[in-house]
Write a structure and sequence with these properties.
Distance between the termini of chain A: 62 Å
CATH topology of the largest domain in chain A: D-Maltodextrin-Binding Protein, domain 2
Radius of gyration of chain A: 25 Å
Number of strands of chain B: 2
Helix content of chain A: 25-40%
CATH superfamily of the largest domain in chain A: Periplasmic binding protein-like II
Strand content of chain A: 15-25%
Shape of chain A: elongated
Largest sheet of chain A: 8 strands, mixed
Strand content of chain B: under 5%
Strand order of the largest sheet of chain B: 1-2
CATH class of the largest domain in chain A: Alpha Beta
Number of helices of chain A: 10
Largest interface: A-B, 32 and 37 residues
Order of helices and strands of chain B: HEEHHHHHHHHH
Oligomer: heterodimer
Radius of gyration of chain B: 23 Å
Structural class of chain A: alpha/beta
Number of domains of chain A: 2
CATH class of the largest domain in chain B: Mainly Alpha
Shape of chain B: globular
Order of helices and strands of chain A: HEHEHEEHEHEHEHEEHEHH
CATH superfamily of the largest domain in chain B: MetI-like
CATH architecture of the largest domain in chain B: Orthogonal Bundle
CATH topology of the largest domain in chain B: MetI-like fold
Helix content of chain B: over 70%
Number of strands of chain A: 10
Distance between the termini of chain B: 43 Å
Strand order of the largest sheet of chain A: 2-1-3-10-4-8-6-7
C-alpha cells in the first residue's frame, strides 16, 4: 500500500492487486524447494510394481520426512540392471533376475543381488455370462494368447457359441496391460483389443454390456453372477491359487538391492512389507503376501 | 456519507477486479503448465507427434490416429447436427406460433445444459445395443455411436444460437419481402437465411467446438484403441479413439515421456478449439455490426 500514495486513486488498485496476487502465487510455489539434509533413495524398474512403489513412497515420505523416495518406471530389465549398476537404490521387477540380465555388466553378478518378494499379482479372465453358460468355463493359456492376438476370433473355436469374440483390455499405460503381455508373451503391437478401458471397473461394465466379451481384471473384480471368471489350464483364480503359484496368470513382484538393504532403503522395504504397506498393495489391486 | 460511499465503490471495484484478474492468471498458469509439460514430447517426437504409431515399448508417441478420430467423429456429428439444428432454428424463429415457441425455446436450452456423462450413459445403455442389433455389428462401440451422441449434443446449441441470429433480422426486411408478394418459404430462403448466415455459422462453429472438446460421452461409446480403421471411413469399427477420449483413457497410469505426449495431444486440441472459438467470435461481431449499421 506504500506505492499507492504516489498514484492517482483509481489506478492504485490496478497496480496493488496484481502485485498481491503475484506475491501469493510466489508463496504458494515456493514450497517446492529441496531440503539439502534429506536422504534420497531411488526405486525404479517394472511398471507393474511402479504403482505400489509410488503409493508406498507417498505414505512413507509422509511418515519419514527426512527421506525422499524417487520412483521410476522403465521395466523389470531396467530395474535389475539399474540396481546392479548403482543407478537405483532399489530395483523393481515383476520376475526373478536372470543371468542374462547381466550381459555387458562387469564387476557385479547375479549372486550380489538380494531379492525381496513384496507382493503377488494375479489376473482373472472374465467372460460374459452368456458365453460362460454356453460352456466356456476353461481356457488354456495358449487359447487365451490366441484370443488376445486375434488368431482366435470366434467363441466356436474354444467351445462356445458361434459368435465373434469381443476383446476387452486396459489402456496401454496400465500395469495390468503390461502384466498380461508378459504372462502371455505379447507386446503392445500384438495385443489386439476391441475396447481399451481405463479401469478394472470399466472392463467389467464393457464385458457385462456385450454378451460375447472377454476381459482381464484384478482378482477383486470377479463377480460370478455377472462376469464369471474362467479357469486357466483348469485352475480357478483365487487368493489361494495365486499364493501357491499354481494359477498360470500369477507371479510374484520383487524389489532388488545390491547386497542386503541398508539405511533408508531397508526402512523403505520394511515399510512395504509392514501391514500398512501390504494394505497399499491391496489398494493397488494386487494380492498381499 | 459521500466519502463512505466512495470507499464502498472502490472496494466493490477492487473485488471485481480481483475476480477478473484471478481468472486470467489461472488461464495463464494453465497455458504455461500445458506447454511446459508437452515440451519434452515435442522435443522427442518433432513432427513425428502427428504420426499414427503409438508404441510404448519403442517410445513412439504419434497421436495422428487420435486426431484423425476427432476429425471424423466430429464430421459425422456435424452431418447430423447442422441440418437438424438449422431446420429446428427456422421452425422456432419463423414458423412456430408464439405460444409453442415460449415452451420450446427453454426446453431446447435446457438440453444444452445436460451433463455429458448423462448422454454417455444413455449411449452405453440404449444406443450401443440398438446399433449392434440394427446394423448387425459385432459390437456397438464405434465412430457411428460417437458421432450420434455428439450430434445430439450439438443440436441444441446450434438451434438456440441460430434462432437468436434469425430473430435479430430486422422486421422491416421480412415485411418488405412479404409485401412484395414473396411466400413464407421464399422469405426464409432469400431474406432470413442470407442475412443471418454469419450468426448461423457462429452457431455451427460453437457446436463443432463442443463436439471436438467433448470427453466423457465419447470415451464411453468408442473402443478407445488408437488406430485408423481400414478403410478409414469405416464408421462401424470399434478400434478408434478421439484425442479427448485417448487422454482420459491413458492418463491414469502413464508416466514420463508418455504423460508428456498426452499433454502434447492436449496442446493440439487446445489449438484447434482456440481457433474455432476465435472464428466464432469474429463471425458474431460481424453479425452485430451488420445490424447496427456500422
Amino acid at each position: 500500500m506504500v506505492i499507492s500514495i504516489k498514484y492517482e486513486k483509481g489506478k492504485t488498485k490496478m497496480l496493488a492487486i496484481p502485485l498481491l496476487v503475484c506475491l501469493i502465487a510466489t508463496l504458494l510455489l515456493s514450497g517446492c524447494t529441496q531440503n539439502a539434509s534429506k536422504t534420497t533413495i531411488s526405486c525404479g524398474g517394472s511398471t507393474t510394481v511402479q504403482p505400489i512403489a509410488d503409493a508406498c513412497a507417498q505414505a512413507f515420505m509422509a511418515q519419514y520426512s527426512n527421506v525422499t523416495v524417487q520412483v521410476y518406471g522403465g521395466g523389470s530389465a531396467v530395474g535389475i540392471k539399474g540396481v546392479a549398476q548403482g543407478t537405483y537404490t532399489i530395483g523393481d521387477a515383476s520376475r526373478a533376475a536372470k543371468q542374462s540380465d547381466f550381459t555387458g555388466i562387469t564387476g557385479v553378478n547375479l549372486t550380489d543381488l538380494v531379492q525381496t518378494k513384496i507382493a503377488l499379482d494375479g489376473i482373472a479372465i472374465i467372460v460374459s455370462k452368456a458365453v460362460y453358460d454356453a460352456g466356456v468355463t476353461n481356457l488354456s493359456k495358449s487359447q487365451l494368447k490366441g484370443i488376445y492376438n486375434n488368431t482366435i476370433n470366434n467363441w466356436k473355436q474354444v467351445g462356445g457359441p458361434d459368435e465373434a469374440i469381443f476383446v476387452v483390455g486396459r489402456d496401454s499405460s496400465s500395469g495390468t496391460y503390461t502384466s498380461i503381455n508378459d504372462m502371455l508373451g505379447l507386446n503392445s503391437t500384438t495385443q489386439k483389443l476391441d475396447k481399451a478401458a481405463s479401469e478394472n471397473a470399466q472392463v467389467k461394465s464393457s464385458v457385462v454390456g456385450q454378451d460375447n466379451s472377454i476381459g482381464y481384471v484384478g482378482l477383486g473384480f470377479v463377480d460370478n453372477t455377472t462376469t464369471p471368471a474362467v479357469r486357466i489350464n483348469g485352475i480357478y483364480p483365487d487368493i489361494r491359487t495365486v499364493k501357491d503359484n499354481t494359477y498360470p496368470l500369477s507371479r510374484a513382484l520383487f524389489m532388488y538391492t545390491k547386497g542386503p538393504a541398508t539405511g533408508a532403503a531397508k526402512i523403505f522395504i520394511d515399510f512395504v512389507l509392514s501391514p500398512p504397506g501390504q494394505q497399499i498393495v491391496a489398494q493397488e489391486e494386487f494380492v498381499p503376501l | 456519507m459521500p466519502l463512505q460511499s466512495k470507499i464502498k465503490e472502490q472496494l466493490i471495484k477492487g473485488v471485481f477486479f480481483v475476480a477478473a484478474a484471478l481468472s486470467i492468471i489461472i488461464i495463464l498458469f494453465i497455458f504455461f503448465y500445458l506447454f511446459q509439460q508437452a515440451a519434452p514430447a515435442f522435443q522427442h517426437e518433432g513432427l513425428g507427434i502427428f504420426s499414427t504409431q503409438w508404441i510404448n515399448e519403442q517410445q513412439k508417441y504419434g497421436i495422428g490416429a487420435a486426431i484423425y478420430g476427432t476429425l471424423i467423429v466430429t464430421l459425422g456429428a456435424m452431418i447430423l447436427a447442422i441440418p437438424l439444428g438449422i431446420a429446428g432454428a427456422i421452425f422456432l424463429a419463423e414458423i412456430a406460433p408464439e405460444r409453442l415457441r415460449i415452451i420450446l425455446k427453454p426446453i431446447i436450452e435446457l438440453l444444452a445444459g445436460i451433463p455429458s456423462i448423462v448422454y454417455g450413459f444413455i449411449g452405453i445403455v440404449l444406443l450401443l445395443s440398438y446399433l449392434r442389433i440394427s446394423f448387425m455389428m459385432p459390437t456397438g462401440f464405434s465412430y457411428l455411436a460417437g458421432s450420434l451422441i455428439l450430434g445430439i449434443m450439438a443440436v441444441p446449441i446450434i438451434v438456440s444460437i441460430s434462432d437468436d441470429a434469425m430473430k435479430a433480422v430486422p422486421r422491416e426486411m421480412k415485411e418488405a419481402s412479404l409485401a412484395l408478394g414473396a411466400t413464407k418459404w421464399q422469405t426464409i430462403k432469400k431474406v432470413i437465411l442470407p442475412t443471418s448466415i454469419s450468426g448461423i455459422s457462429a452457431a455451427v462453429i460453437l457446436g463443432i467446438g463442443r463436439a471436438v472438446g467433448e470427453t466423457m460421452a465419447v470415451s464411453l461409446v468408442l473402443g478407445n484403441i488408437i488406430n485408423i480403421p481400414i478403410p478409414p471411413w469405416n464408421i462401424f469399427d470399434s478400434h478408434v479413439t478421439t484425442v479427448t477420449s485417448f487422454i482420459v483413457t491413458e492418463m491414469g497410469e502413464s508416466s514420463g515421456l508418455q504423460t508428456s505426449a498426452l499433454f502434447a495431444s492436449a496442446v493440439v486440441l487446445f489449438v484447434i478449439v482456440a481457433i474455432m472459438s476465435i472464428a466464432s467470435n469474429i463471425l458474431k461481431e460481424h453479425v452485430q455490426k451488420k445490424f447496427r449499421g456500422g
